[in-house]
Amino acid sequence: MPDPATTDYDETVGRADYDDTVVIVRVFNEAPVVAGVLRELLAVGLRVIAVDDGSTDASADEIDAAGAFRVSHPINIGAGGALQTGIEAALRFTQAKFIACFDADGQHRLVDLIGMIHTIRQGYDVVIGSRFLQGDPDMGRLRRMMLKLGARLTRRGGSFRLTDAHNGLRIFTRAVAGDIKLNHAGMAYASELEEVLTRPRYRVTEFPVQIVYTDYSLAKGQPLLNSVNILSDIVAHRVSARRRR
């Protein structure tokens, strides 16, 4: 079995049989780039469900032009709500064995997703992308520190020890998808999701990925502020979880 931390999967990119996989792409006001992202996924034979989360620009038209299956929210309900909609659509409208998550803004690489598909086919339940498996990524020092702190805060008991907090590039089995019931519609969903994906009964691994920080994604994403929000969400989620016990 190849080691996902060291195997080079660049040679696998090309049209292939991906009938066992569907990709969820959450979209909110990504009209300038979303069609290109979707076409790249579709070009290799992947099925794509794009969730238009109440976009006020031309995102819906761009999704349709690219040829992806579109599900639309009449209003914006947030990242967690869009992901839950995508998961429910994948379970209802496809027979896919694996369900992947891919960002709409061009930060994720197709080659990494293909590698993760190959990895999960080896018998894993969950494969999560990590920017820290092959050295420190090209990002600001403060952001790197915040993400590593976030990873430590999400470690619990005997569950899988993540090295990368809130990496949006993920793939999981259909059975795992059926267990996902997100209560947080906004960004706090990520901590809630990681608790599900790293349950002790699942066979979990991480896969080395690179994030492409384009001018567009940096301008839109405000990465340093997002890192602060990640830490706040992790702490808030842990406090609310304790109160429910």
Number of domains as seen in the coordinates: 1
**Biggest sheet details:** 7 strands, mixed
Name of the CATH superfamily: Spore Coat Polysaccharide Biosynthesis Protein SpsA, Chain A
Indicate the mean pLDDT: 83
What is the CATH T-level topology?
Answer: Spore Coat Polysaccharide Biosynthesis Protein SpsA, Chain A
What is the alpha-carbon Rg in Å? 17 Å
Tell me the span between the first and last alpha carbons.
40 Å
Note the topology:
Blueprint: E1 21-27, H1 34-43, E2 47-53, H2 59-66, E3 69-73, H3 79-93, E4 98-103, H4 110-120, E5 126-130, H5 141-153, E6 170-173, H6 174-179, H7 189-197, E7 204-208, H8 215-221, H9 223-244
Parallel strand pairs: 1-2, 1-4, 2-3, 5-7
Antiparallel strand pairs: 4-6, 5-6
Notes on the protein architecture:
The protein is an alpha/beta fold and 245 residues long. 41% of the residues lie in helices and 16% in strands. A 7-stranded mixed sheet has the order 3-2-1-4-6-5-7, sandwiched between helices. The longest helix is centred in the last third of the chain and has 22 residues, at 223-244. It is globular. The relative contact order is 0.16. The model is unreliable at 4-10 (pLDDT under 50).
